[in-house]
Task: inverse folding
């Protein structure tokens, strides 16, 4: 693989690549690259003798070798070239790398640029700093082997693969001067999320957004086998990328000298192309979607590393994926090979007496915030501006008395979000997998459109390049865009069918981990929270049926660190407004808000809603009948539908048992249920007991899987008396109320639960119980005959008998 | 959109499309299509008067209209054409449709073919049957509006989008005579999993596998906006598909007559192409990857439906996605429009006096198992053959006494799986996202190769078209292939990094739902279980760091129905063998097995392992010191690393407190912890108490998040005394033992937990506690200095002091 070829796929006049760089440019570039490679190998292997100023001995080598060499030299190569371009063009550029296990490369780059020593003064640009730099890597108490929050200049965790393109496009949105260079690994390119991410160019406005320069890096191998993208004819490769709407330029080879000229020429061509696209769009408006340039870089895996080890080919194969020389500490041949590998970069030329990079290397790095490792977009909290917020109280649904009005909570929220969009036209977007309108947030489209740079046809509505509603039928892409947008210091709101939020479970994991670690790094500034609205939820997916019914995203999220996670279940429109306002102002959380879109009774006027949401949990006196403060039973509820069913059950019971003392407790902030020491929102035991008593039965109607309530409350005094109803995987295509009946969370089952658990109801109990059972039978019969719920169910509202 | 165009993208000589069908063929085809469309509209709207033999009145219309019209006529069109091809070519063909919300179409087809009435005799091919057919659709007590297990001929739930291609390819594997026609919706095509699925053609052996015929159906709109794939130039569209390695043929238009000729001609061409590819490969061997044909079908959304409603365009727009006429029950104009829409299909021509399809329609359907609705592959359990199993005991690691040997559990399993592969060369495959070898199952490659039809290069190892190891770096694709393979009656095994199993959370949901519903349908035969091996697990991801650490897949899975879900945590190699054997023989479950790949002490010889796994939970007498049967403390453990740490803690404590009565309980089958009434594997309270006592402290070291144990045991008598250690999101790049220390599940913390909870230890307790704390400090210091665990940790094995 010694040759070098350049396919200028379409722009015709290429200067002879061999002349593209001056000797001096070439020199600085190559030295920078060699230094980055040298330090990468050093980080993987060494814990001493970082400049090889003495012969390499076993004790200089780490006992456990943990890191990935294979992808790293290619990443360093690109980094070195981007630096040249940044300097010559004064570019505002970020670097997102999909193959983030190439962590040593990005750490080396940040150190060469001086950023690392600014952020971590102990890792100075001197010999001691170098000892620390190499030793800390993948070492207990040190830094991870992958790109991580600890890596300056990064917004993209290097563990799970597939999200680089979506992150890059998210970063570019509303940053018209920014160019995001995004390396896509050929392993990563096999993943679904990455494959979907290519289509992001249909949503990027060349006038008001920045640019993404994808660099598909074909080094040919995954952990143990070739990659698909490297083993298809180049014709197919280019055909695919052109089909995706890009103009691909191929740079392939292994000879560093000619590769430098060729890549530099190609990069210049691409950056000229980007500038031309943007100039045209910003001057003439957007006539049609531009073809953005991109690069295909084909280099050997483990480039410049050992060609063969133990008689087997390593460079250019999957054997260089992690540690090419497996045991230099015990195997003298490996040790010698490691030494000559390191010396092949000629470290004596690269570092001065003190261990600092020599001037040609220092001069090759950009300066200040132009350094990609110090670009403020990659530490987005530094750029974060608070949203200009409308007053959410202005959108309140008037509620003269509980239950008197009906509203669609998310539709009300839509009006509020519309005005958030209006006031924040450069740093707020809403994201949805084709569900914005289905989730009844359509008022947002009064203030903006959907982002759309693909073709339009007569009759199309609400599509424009600068639209602020990001809709693609890919939860992964939406989530990736939003993460990229947030991590670069902006704000967003993701609405999603509840069941399908699970599609991004694993992405949420990674974002939660990122936030947890970032919070521990003083130099990382707080960013806006990741806000989910889960709607079209389990209790109102009667029409789409079983496949659309799953409330388990909450369960997934609460496994994450308590300081990161918030879960809200506002029971009506005004509480939803209050919660949404709070979430949009918050920082560094993952906020999950669950709320329905269907017409439902409203309970709290805005003042009451604010009080209730501020407490997060509270007794609804107006619905309770335990004026004495000594209830026979606590009726707890969390979620809009469970709240309605609980109130309807109370209504029934009030009629049957006028002297039954019921206390209604509504939960908005789910984490209030957990103990103080487990979650910052957790109630003290005293506060919990004052709501739930220490010994009375609690009938808890919960939006999600019932076990979650037990999980959150198992240490509470009254836990043994808490009886939870929730979703238990019973569902199908039926009526809304029947969904509740199937899962036994409906008003009749809840009322029966009370009767079964309050002993003092006496002989009336048996009679009332039978009446409730008859109601259930009547319901089933009615629904089977008519296909809709009984009028008394459809029309139920809180009767207000108990005052308010 | 009245014109019709056919782009025969490359195969040159096309017969004039207008002549392709005889008049009689065209007639039968069009009648079949009209009948399917008529019945589809009928299902969405009607609950009476199904043949329109009297004027349509409001009470004939359902009160709640739930269904999707938009995609349905296109699906019916394709179905009608496939039927012609099946008949003329005697094809073994299945139909997988991505836009599965077009459920009414597939139900209509199954009814027209007679299958529906065979499976559901109440829905006969007569007037009464028709009343039932239309009424039951999306009606309480009826059938879902999407394609579901209830739909004969389907293996693909129509709720969540993105998995059709992977399912189709999974079905085609090892079925050389099968052709799977797979409709990909243009909404679905935006998802990541679907985008990744196109690459499946690099893994399909034209000699030993069947074929997939993708039909990309561009009807232009999602719920509320245009689709990306319909709004790019055709040049880009074809370029992408050719880049993916297909030969696309475009059929576009809206005039039924010419569309019939054109689609029929194109379909014949594609089926000829498939036959030619297979013939060549089977005769001459595989020289290079074939270009499989595929179809791009561009038709109006809601084709043949109302052109305009309430003055707005409906046909050909997103407004026809669900219910084009929103309120025929109350809006007389809608009612009239519905009636004329239905009559436009000329039902009087299509159904005989009794309501059965007229002979030309019946004759257009294939016969017997050639009907796609009755194809046995789509009810895979009917074709399922048990695996020919090697005796797992033959692979046992000899364990003379507990802790004496060390083994890598998954490597041992690899030998067993190798021989399962050897004995089952047509109906067993292993699946992994590029992790088969990393997970140490490489022995499998002694019996087979990786499946690979892309290019090869000198030096490649273990790649061949007929390999039985399916590796692509896409968890989604692996999962989709495996589901398709299982649902068509075969067996499989999926190994995955534990943390990244979350990537398929949502797919697991859908498969679990499918199994739950299938189990309730007597005509659906049981299929092989979906078997996961989660390895490279949280406690041994010290080298990859925090991003690779997440044990929450278990939490996700246990939310599914108890009758579907099994979770096993074998502590060593022999128990893993026993569990794996059990899982491979089981049916209709989702089995999650968690086991490590690193060298670890072995505890049970094969006889003991079998006994232990059969019980699923048990006291390890050889490790316990409560010979009296009256322990001071119960040391419970589940998972390989927690088991080792528990035994090491017991070892320590035994030394410090020779008279401390400890009982070691090991859990292999996690669901044993749950109550009998919650899970079929649940222990009775008596049995639980006999293991865990009613009043002694239980120190429980658990592989995953600690709350899961509380969730499973909160109703047990001794729950308040159960103290669980598990993963609490503390992790980074460090040493294996340090991972345990960070999460306080290590031997020293566990021993301290015992000391803190057993009051009778007296004054020695404080001293022992301090010594343990010193150990922890010593550990931290050692690790920071040396980068590896202390020798005493690395070398610990169970000392066997307590006999065995």
Result:
């Amino acid at each position: 693989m010694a040759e070098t070829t350049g396919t200028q796929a379409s722009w015709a006049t290429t200067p002879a690549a061999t002349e593209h760089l001056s000797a001096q440019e070439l020199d600085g570039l190559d030295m920078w690259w060699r230094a980055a490679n040298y330090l990468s190998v050093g980080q993987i292997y060494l814990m001493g003798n970082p400049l090889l100023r003495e012969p390499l001995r076993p004790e200089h080598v780490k006992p456990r070798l943990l890191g990935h060499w294979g992808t790293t030299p290619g990443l360093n190569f690109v980094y070195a070239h981007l630096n040249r371009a940044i300097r010559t063009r004064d570019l505002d550029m970020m670097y997102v790398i999909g193959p983030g296990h190439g962590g040593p490369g990005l750490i080396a780059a940040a150190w060469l640029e001086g950023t690392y020593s600014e952020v971590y003064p102990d890792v100075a640009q001197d010999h001691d700093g170098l000892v620390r730099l190499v030793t800390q890597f993948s070492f207990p108490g040190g830094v991870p082997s992958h790109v991580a929050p600890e890596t300056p200049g990064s917004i993209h965790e290097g563990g799970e693969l597939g999200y680089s393109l979506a992150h890059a496009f998210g970063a570019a949105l509303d940053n018209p001067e920014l160019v995001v260079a995004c390396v896509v690994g050929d392993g990563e390119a096999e993943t679904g999320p990455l494959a979907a991410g290519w289509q992001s160019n249909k949503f990027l406005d060349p006038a008001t957004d920045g640019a993404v320069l994808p660099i598909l890096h074909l080094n040919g191998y995954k952990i143990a086998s070739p990659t698909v993208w490297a083993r298809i004819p180049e014709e197919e490769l280019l055909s695919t990328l052109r089909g995706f709407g890009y103009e691909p330029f191929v740079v392939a080879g292994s000879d560093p000298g000619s590769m430098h000229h060729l890549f530099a020429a190609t990069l210049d061509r691409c950056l000229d192309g980007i500038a031309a696209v943007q100039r045209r769009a910003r001057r003439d408006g957007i006539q049609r979607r531009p073809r953005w340039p991109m690069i295909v870089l084909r280099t050997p895996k483990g480039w410049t590393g050992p060609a063969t080890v133990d008689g087997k080919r390593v460079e250019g194969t999957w054997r260089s994926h992690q540690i090419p020389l497996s045991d230099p500490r015990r195997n003298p041949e490996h040790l010698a090979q490691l030494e000559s590998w390191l010396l092949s970069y000629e470290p004596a030329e690269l570092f001065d007496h003190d261990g600092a990079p020599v001037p040609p290397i220092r001069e090759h790095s950009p300066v200040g915030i132009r350094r990609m490792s110090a670009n403020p977009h990659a530490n987005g909290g530094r750029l974060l501006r608070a949203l200009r917020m409308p007053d959410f109280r202005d959108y309140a649904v008037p509620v003269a008395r509980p239950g008197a009005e009906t509203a669609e909570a998310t539709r009300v929220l839509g009006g509020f979000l519309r005005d958030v969009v209006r006031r924040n036209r450069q740093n707020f977007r809403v994201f949805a997998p084709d569900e914005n309108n289905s989730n009844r947030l359509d008022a947002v489209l009064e203030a903006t459109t959907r982002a759309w740079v693909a073709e339009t046809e007569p009759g199309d509505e609400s599509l424009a390049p600068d639209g602020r509603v990001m809709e693609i039928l890919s939860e992964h892409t939406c989530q990736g865009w939003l993460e990229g947008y947030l991590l670069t210091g902006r704000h967003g709101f993701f609405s999603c069918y509840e069941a399908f939020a699970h599609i991004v479970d694993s992405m949420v994991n990674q974002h939660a981990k990122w936030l947890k670690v970032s919070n521990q790094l003083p130099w990382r500034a707080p960013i806006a929270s990741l806000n989910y609205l889960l709607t079209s939820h389990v209790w109102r997916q009667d029409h789409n049926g079983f496949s659309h019914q799953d409330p388990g995203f909450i369960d997934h999220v609460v496994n994450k660190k308590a300081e990161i996670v918030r879960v809200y279940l506002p029971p009506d429109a005004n509480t939803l407004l209050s919660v949404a306002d709070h979430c949009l102002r918050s920082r560094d959380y993952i906020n999950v808000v669950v709320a329905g879109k269907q017409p439902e009774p409203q309970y709290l006027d805005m003042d009451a809603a604010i009080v209730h949401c501020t407490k997060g949990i509270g007794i609804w006196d107006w619905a309770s009948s335990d004026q004495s403060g000594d209830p026979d039973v606590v009726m707890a509820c969390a979620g809009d539908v469970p709240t309605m069913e609980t109130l309807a059950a109370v209504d029934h019971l009030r009629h049957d048992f006028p002297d039954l003392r019921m206390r209604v407790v509504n939960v908005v902030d789910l984490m209030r249920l957990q103990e103080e020491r487990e979650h910052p929102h957790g109630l003290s035991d005293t506060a919990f007991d004052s709501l739930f008593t220490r010994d009375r039965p609690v009938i808890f109607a919960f939006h999600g899987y019932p076990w979650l309530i037990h999980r959150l409350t198992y240490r509470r005094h009254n836990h043994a008396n808490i009886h939870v109803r929730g979703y238990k995987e019973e569902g199908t295509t039926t009526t809304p109320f029947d969904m509740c009946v199937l899962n036994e969370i409906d008003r009749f089952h809840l009322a029966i639960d009370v009767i079964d658990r309050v002993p003092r109801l006496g002989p009336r109990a048996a009679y009332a119980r039978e009446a409730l059972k008859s109601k259930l039978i009547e319901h089933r019969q009615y629904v089977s005959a008519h296909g809709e719920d009984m009028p008394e169910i459809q029309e139920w509202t809180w009767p207000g008998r108990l005052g308010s």
Observations:
- Chain B touches chain A through 121 residues (CB under 8 Å).
- Chain B has three domains: 4-375, 392-600, 617-794.
